[in-house]
Specification:
Radius of gyration: 19 Å
Structural class: alpha+beta
GO molecular function, one term: ATP binding
Shape: globular
Largest sheet: 6 strands, antiparallel
CATH topology of the largest domain: Tumour Suppressor Smad4
Number of strands: 16
Family: Belongs to the diacylglycerol/lipid kinase family.
Cofactor: Mg(2+)
Protein name: Diacylglycerol kinase catalytic domain protein
Order of helices and strands: EHEHEHEHHEEEHHHEEEEHEEEEE
Organism: Lancefieldella rimae (strain ATCC 49626 / DSM 7090 / CCUG 31168 / NBRC 15546 / VPI D140H-11A) (Atopobium rimae)
Strand order of the largest sheet: 6-5-16-13-8-9
CATH architecture of the largest domain: Sandwich
Length: about 300
């Protein structure tokens, strides 16, 4: 078998687990190329020869993995997500075992599923156009502001950097969001508007119930609060109801559809899969790319064929 490993060594804490995975993966006669991403790496260039391999393993944080999944979408090339980042939420959403040997076994077995991606486009106030894939979630408002504050500290504090960022922004700007989903318009006020392909976060906490990566839909999630502290209530209910199907999610509203258009009352930054982009915008568009990625799954994944 032939394997391509795309690895971002600057993700997370610089773990060497990917090399443990490689040792567990390879058998006699196999070929493996490990391509290390440098500071100027380009996702399309990184996967330009992906069709020559039986499986492409993408290793990095959620931002790296999101870029590479988008670059590989609709190619039919099987990919395996390897968690090398800080939060590793995309890997958690797919639901595979995280241990290197277990992931190597899943790749050898070759069981795959077809997962959706989202695609988001916007033009910044300075006139710069952006288009990116959404593997997990994109957002405008508080979440983008928190990511912008947390990113410089992630290398030292890990996931705790997000909590310190939240404590430094207790009274974020309240926006009026005009949200059009499949032609139906809703107006809501809140501190963030997210477009999600998956709503699963740490410890299997689901921000919105019933969101899946294979349903052919995107989910728009509005945090309808005025202060960061008001998010304590939905987070607290999540301790007792991780799926949100029993107690719900107070102060959080969701809409589901294939095409989304969002307008904000004032310019705010945008983040995609944990990566914050320069500049601010008043509007963005998103659409679902159904069954765009062929992804390796093991028997633990909720997306495995039962």
């Amino acid at each position: 078998m032939r394997f391509l490993i795309l690895h971002n060594p600057r993700s997370g804490f610089g773990s060497d687990a990917i090399y443990e995975f490689e040792r567990a993966l390879l058998h006699d006669g196999d070929e493996c190329l490990m391509r290390i991403m440098d500071d100027a790496w380009d996702p399309k260039q990184a996967v330009q020869d992906a069709a020559l391999y039986d499986c492409v393993i993408i290793s990095g944080g959620d931002g790296t993995i999101g870029h590479l999944m988008y670059a590989l979408c609709n190619t039919g090339v099987p990919l395996c997500v390897f968690p090398s980042g800080t939060a590793n939420l995309i890997c958690a959403s797919i639901g595979n075992a995280h241990e290197p040997a277990a992931l190597a076994l899943a790749v050898r077995r070759g069981h795959t599923t077809q997962l959706d991606l989202g695609e988001i486009s916007w033009t910044s106030e300075a006139g710069h156009m952006h288009t990116h894939g959404i593997a997990l979630v994109a957002g405008s408002g508080l979440d983008a502001q928190l990511m912008r504050t947390a990113i410089p500290h992630k290398k030292f504090f890990g996931e705790a950097a997000y909590f310190t960022a939240a404590l430094s922004n207790l009274a974020p700007t309240v926006q009026t969001f005009t949200i059009t989903v499949d032609g139906v318009t809703h107006e809501r006020q809140g501190i963030a508007c997210l477009v999600a392909n998956s709503a699963k976060f740490q410890a299997d906490f689901e921000l919105l119930p019933g969101v899946r990566m294979d349903d052919g839909l995107l989910s728009v999630i509005v945090l309808e609060t005025k202060m960061t502290a008001e998010l304590v209530k939905p987070l607290f209910t999540g301790l007792f109801d991780r799926s949100g199907k029993t107690l719900g999610r107070p102060n959080i509203e969701g809409f589901h559809g294939r095409e989304v258009h969002v307008e904000m009352s004032s310019p705010i930054p945008v983040e995609v899969d944990g990566e914050v982009f320069a500049g601010e915008t008043r509007t963005f568009d998103a659409r679902v790319l159904p069954k765009a990625c062929t992804v390796i799954v093991d028997t633990l994944s909720p997306y495995a064929q039962k």
